[in-house]
Amino acid sequence: MEDQRVSVEQLKQVMAADFERLAEQVAQALNAAKDGHIIADTEELVRDANAVFREQMYTKAIGLLQSQQEAFSPRPEGLRNKGKQQTTHLTVNGRLSVRRTVYWSASSGTVVPTDQWLGLTEHRFSPGVREMCCREALHCSFEVASDNLQRTAQLSLAGRSQREVVENDGAGGADGPAKGIVAAGLYGSRVYRADADHGGRWSDGPDGDRSAKAKASGHGVGQADQTRAALDRCRGPAPAG
Prior knowledge:
Elements: H1 8-32, H2 38-71, E1 80-91, E2 94-105, E3 109-111, H3 113-118, H4 127-137, H5 142-153, H6 159-170, H7 181-185, H8 210-217, H9 224-235
Antiparallel strand pairs: 1-2, 2-3
Helix pairs in contact: 1-2, 4-5, 4-6, 5-6
């Protein structure tokens, strides 16, 4: 499978109609803008149109690569083909929809080779999404962080789901990009698994949970040097210069 990759021509072909639609939406927004308000009247419309296009391109590009992979992969032996089923995975490029073949056997249970190949078996959210969740939660409540993700990154993720991501990754339960960020910058030396650990002091109310988190950490919230150190452990240090 290493030599089977997606070509530029393939992408152009499958994205032709989508690009045409994007160009039409951008042109329509620009033509409808009023003099003196060109930026104000167009930036959100163009941004939203590009978000849809980005998600479509990512999904179709992954689909092209998937078709290549499946064409050159033998069927698993001893497993019953249960047909095609669809799953979704939230990424920084939008929600990825994947339709893949599911296999089953009495001894192995459900086996989905495509999920294993794509890296979808351990998490519902991509590494980039999980990192964004932890970064946003450093400074505000999970509900506010959810709103911030929607506004800044165009990612739709409920506050409860964001809390789950932060607690799981921040506690060091995974070796993904979020590991250590919360522990270093949010809760100090210990990550608390649930609000119940604090006797109900933390909430997603008007004041958020910044003050309570600061008290729990003993040194405030999201110190820059500690966050950088956590990111260095996750992603590697930033390039010099």
